[in-house]
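Input record (one chain):
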Amino acid sequence: MNEKIPIGEFIGRKVRIQYNKKEFEGIIIDETKNTFALKTLNGVKKIIKNNAIIEIDRIQIHGKNLMKRPEDRIKM
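The corresponding structure, as predicted from the sequence alone:
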């Protein structure tokens, strides 16, 4: 699995998230240290980062590697 973390803001980006043997596709509308809020065709889903695999721009990232505040990640 490629662990290169995309630079910049995730809000507004289209993603695919695997979480608890389910897969969600949508647009990230909010992010906290521990969660993503994902707008899908079936409504808004709150996804816990720690248990998820996130695919952004064809890059897969373990959610545990994103467990920090968005503003801290952007500073990296």
